[in-house]
Please model this.
Amino acid sequence: MKYIALIFIIFLLSACKEEPKTIEIHPFDKVKKQQEEKFTTPISISELDWIEGKWIDSTSFLGHIIVEDWNLKYDTLIGKRGTMKNGEISFTQTSKIIITKGKPVYLLEPNGSAFVSFRLNEYTSDKISFINIANVAPQEIIYTKKNKELELTVISLTPAGKRTFKNIFKAFNN
Model:
C-alpha cells in the first residue's frame, strides 16, 4: 500500500509540473526591438539642421513644382510640403521631426488628417531614414544631403511591388 501511495504522489507531482510556455513575438515587435537596439547614441535636433530651409524640386509635373519648407521651432523641425504653380504655393501636408528618448521620430500629417509616426531606421551625418511598416503608404521616408541639394526618397510597398519616388530639391530663395 505504501508503494501505491508513493507512486500516486509521484504521478501527481509530475502531472502538476508546468511546461515552459513559448511566447511568440509579433513581427512588428521584433522590428521595433531591433530598431531600439540599433541606435544607442542620442541624436539632437541640431544635428539635423541640414534639412532646415525652403526647398524646391528641380523637376515639375504638369506645371506643378514640389516645395518643402522646414523650420526649426524650439526642439522640433516643422516641415510643410506643397506645390507651386504660377508662383503661388499651396501647402497640403505637414511633417515634424521630434526627438524622443534621444532618437528622431518623423510625424507625417497628410491632408490635415491624424499624424502617422515613423521610427528612426538609419542615421548618418548626411542621411536619415524613417520607417513604419504598418503604414499603408509610404512605409519609408529618407532624406539625404547631397552637396547643396536635399534628396527625398519615399518608398511604398504595394501588391504590385516596391514603388520608389524621389525628389531632388535645391535651396529656394524668394
